[in-house]
Each structure stands twice: as structure tokens, then as C-alpha cells.
What does this fold into?
Amino acid sequence: MKKAVILLSGGLDSTTCLAIAKSKNYNVYALSFRYGQRHEFEIGAAKECAQLYHVEDHVILDIDLRSFGGSALTDNIEVPKKRKESIPRDEIPITYVPARNTIFLSFALAYAETIKSQNIFIGVNALDYSGYPDCRPEYIKSFEAMSNLATKAGVEEESQLKIHTPLIDLSKKEIIEKGVELGVDYSKTHSCYDPDPTGISCGLCDACSLRKEGFKKTNIVDPIQYAI
Amino acid sequence: MKKAVILLSGGLDSTTCLAIAKSKNYNVYALSFRYGQRHEFEIGAAKECAQLYHVEDHVILDIDLRSFGGSALTDNIEVPKKRKESIPRDEIPITYVPARNTIFLSFALAYAETIKSQNIFIGVNALDYSGYPDCRPEYIKSFEAMSNLATKAGVEEESQLKIHTPLIDLSKKEIIEKGVELGVDYSKTHSCYDPDPTGISCGLCDACSLRKEGFKKTNIVDPIQYAI
It folds into this structure.
């Protein structure tokens, strides 16, 4: 069985991505981060999803991105609660965490190299997304090219590291439908940027809005609770 | 004054790189890591060097690269103590830490983005070096290209992030001569991969060997103590 490292936040996208990797018969190693996010509740969701899918191993790393500040997801800056109807593609929201996916993928690269895997899965998508620069296909391609120069694999072997982005061209609706087809239990996933202390989703942040809109376009009922 | 982030280990190379950045009138923000290295003694050296050069700020991050294992610098694997006379360029030593520079540069990128700097300095060199893939010029170029797709700067502005590698084409001898010219106090720097508990360098590991050979080729006496 081929090995794959998957970045798992416990959200709708990364959990669907995990289900896709499993459906393609990868032996999955999950990687999650406590990075000082407001919504650390998602770590519990990541653990549950990792267990449900019988991943080979689940590493949870502590890295404190608050050391640099600069994002509503890690700082005391308020998480915006009113979503614009259409997201202008050239505007980067305040919830953007500087270089977050680059840091996450770098650790995934270290993990992949250590377990001798040539596969990394990341659930980014560039359609119904929050407008972060590090979710775009051209960024992912560039990271992949860099990775193949960074590691032993790139130097010693013919084999090349591949970054799999099975969701990148899908709408939120299509992601949910794909997940349901693969039997994903979305009640175990967590998307909200700013949940209440019991973990109930706010229903108003970017992540909640994209999720709610996505479910609305399917015939499927979102099984999680929202405050609004 | 232009701002720059510098990766500072407190070793000979990164300290010389810091002196070069200062000589070019950059306002320097230093970044160091506790990553589970055997030679955590270097953090003390990094602090001293940062103070000596009056850096604007010095962030020390804790990241545990031992979570993945796989290197003599972080694991219980023995640090090799007999240096080959010539280093074959296609052989990667056991002291290589998977994706280390990629992880370090990713955090530097986050830091640079947060303080709105377009400059990162890293003291890699590809001549008298340990043969790590992530020290090669083609790797650095590729990381720079990726960075410019990863961040707000790459999307919103004309300005491009630059990764400065002032040592990349220099021999160890030339690095030391450059440093001395700039007034670097090498007694404050620490290079050894496997120092004794009091911080005295082993004199036999790769890092010690490269340093000793470098000083031998100059007329300068290495001011640090070696066990052998």
C-alpha cells in the first residue's frame, strides 16, 4: 500500500480529502496543528475523524503562529461575521494567517520524508474558498516543485513527491456530495472559525457561511448545530 | 531603513550573515528555533549574537522536529565523528534533518509577511557545506518563487520577496575573512553538533571539521574551545 501524509484540520474539506485518500487505498498518516487558533475545538474533530478512518498514525504538532500575530484566526482581531455575497478574488480577508499553508505543507514534507512517502494530500479548494493566496493551484504547483529540490528524495531517487489536491476544482456542493458518496459523517466535522465554548458553530463567519451555502445547494441536511 | 528577517542559529555562518545584513543597513529581525536539536546550546549563542548586533527583535520558536524522527541531530542516532576528506556531493549525511530549511524558511516567510518585510537572509553555503539538499542555490531559488505565490505580497503588490544568501558561493575561509573584516566576534558563535554539557565543541563532527578547516586556511585563530 502506498503511504500518504494528509493535513487534517477536522473540517469539512480535509475530512472529505481523507475519505478520498482512503478510497484510493492510501495508507494514511494524518497531521494536525495547534497553532494558537481561536477554533482549537477543531483538534477534537480531527482526532475523531482520524480514528473513524483508522489512520496509520496521527501527529498533532504545537506551533505558535501567534508569535508573529497578524490574523483574526489567532489574534484578538474580531472574526468578520457578515459574508459578502460574492468574494472578490483579489481581496485577502483578515482571517488569513501569514504563510499558514506553507508552514503546514513544510511539516507535511518532513513527515513524508521521514516515513518515506511520496504523497501529501491537502484539502484546499480554489472555487468556494476564502480567497487565501496559499489555496491557489499555482501556489500548490510551486510548492511541489520546491519540495522536489528540498529533500533527499529529490536528490537521491527518481521518485518525485506529489501534492494531491482532490478538491481544488470542486465547488462546496460537489465536495459535500463526494463526501456523502464516500460515507463521510459530517456531524463529526468542524468548520467554524469562532465557535462558542461548547463548540457550537457561530453560523456567520466565512467558514460557516461557505459550509451552509454548500449544504443548501445539495439535498443534504447539515448535521451540525449553529448558533444562528 | 529596510527590514529583513534573518535565520539565526548562533553558528559561524548565520552570525556572519547577520553582520553582512547589518553592514547593508537592514533593520534586522532575528528568528531562531528550538527544534529538539542535541546542540540546543546554540540558542544561547544566537541570543548573544542577536544582542551584540542590536537586532530589532529576536523570536525564538519551539517546534519539535523529533515528532518525525530520522536525523542524528535530533534523535538518538550517533553524530558521525570522522569526516571524510572530500564530501561526495550526491551523498546526504545522517545529520540531515528532513525538510529543516523548508520549515525554517516558511516561518521566516510568516514573520516577514507580518512585519511587512520583503527580505529574508539565510546563511546557507553550497561550497564547504554538509551536503544537505536544502542548502543548494536551486532549492533557494525555488523557495523564493513559491513564496511569491504564497503570500499577500505576491498577490497584492508589485513588490517581491527576496531570499538573500550572501554566503552561498563563499568557501568557509572566505566566510571567516568576511566576518573578521566586519568585526564578527567568533568567540560568541557555536557550530558543534554534539557539544559536551558545558558547551565545549567536540572538534570531530561535520560542523566542527568544516569550521576548523576554514580557520586553518586563514591566518586567524579560532577563538572557541574544542575537546579535541
Q: What stands out?
A: The beta strands of chain A are 3-7, 27-34, 57-62, 119-121, 162-164. Residues 3-190 of chain A form a domain with the Rossmann fold fold (CATH 3.40.50.620).
